């Protein structure tokens, strides 16, 4: 399917559906799953990935009304929650026209929606300790008063918060305290008559490690794409539950060798003469660079897989090209190079790349250029 492409991303449909099923297996029976597909579905392709999981999830979370509009344009009819701020009248109008639920987290945004002829549905975000978006719990009585006074009750579809450290097992008390704070907020809304709205707190880490926080719905991002939020969260789950929970990476990132050449001892490779060849060797040129999402920080230290063998990136990563050292691997033009993949007996995951440069898998996969073709396999 990728025979005519020089650089591409593969999306494994079976792996994606397996991950939905796996997450579903740890949830309470009535808990809904909303797929978090913001940031181009974590680099997997907003359209492609969303269509794969559409029949197996209960709704979607996006960052902007424009992402929500895209989902509507490809025929997705399930509820869509916009997690990011919706700041302009144009965006509010788009939200209303596309039946999107926006996040309201300030009194300013509450007042702003009153200026729209067709008021969009919304969810209230509560700040229980993340200290990012959200109303403080102490302000919720005012929020409820505003909603009732301005006849917005029918537009309120949910109340939620976000955990600051559910994936970090070093701070269970912080997560538990946030959950207790949210339970108090939930009671306030229920007392005011809002018993049929969605209450939710957990992303992947909370959903797996804190079953008491499932509430009505969980927002699953990284887990659907086959990764744990952290190594520690995976270890903690295995220790507590005496069993492993398997998640399968969905994304592979590949390119084809464009040429192979023999370099002599003393030759320099790439921009700024940063790498000198120590002995005669074959190198391969691969059409992928920092434009594609392979960060320049991998220069000299990253590696790729060719025929199941590791080949180190040498010299500086260019905008559209890298050079790899072939060593004993018999590499030829047209051979497939795996940047992220399972290749023969070797595995090169986003977490492996993240460890090399001290970042997280989220950053590795979300920075893959959205213009690169996503191929569903």
Concise summary:
The protein folds into two domains: about 30-240, TIM Barrel; about 250-375, Lyase, Ornithine Decarboxylase, Chain A, domain 1 (Beta Barrel).
How would you characterize this protein structure?
- There is one protein chain.
- The chain is elongated.
- It is α/β, with parallel strands linked by helices.
- Strands 1, 11, 12, 15, 16, 17, 18, 19, 20 and 21 form a 10-stranded mixed β-sheet that branches.
- The chain contains 12 helices and 21 strands.
- Helix 4 packs parallel to helix 5.
- It has helices spanning 13-25, 38-42, 46-53, 65-73, 89-97, 107-113, 140-149, 172-191, 204-209, 231-241, 350-357, 361-366; strands at 7-11, 32-36, 59-62, 80-82, 101-104, 122-127, 135-136, 156-160, 198-200, 217-220, 251-256, 259-263, 268-269, 275-276, 281-286, 303-306, 309-314, 322-325, 336-343, 346-348, 374-376.
- It starts with 6 loop residues before the first strand and ends with a strand.
- The mean pLDDT is 96.
- The protein has 2 domains: 31-241, TIM Barrel; 251-376, Beta Barrel (Lyase, Ornithine Decarboxylase, Chain A, domain 1).
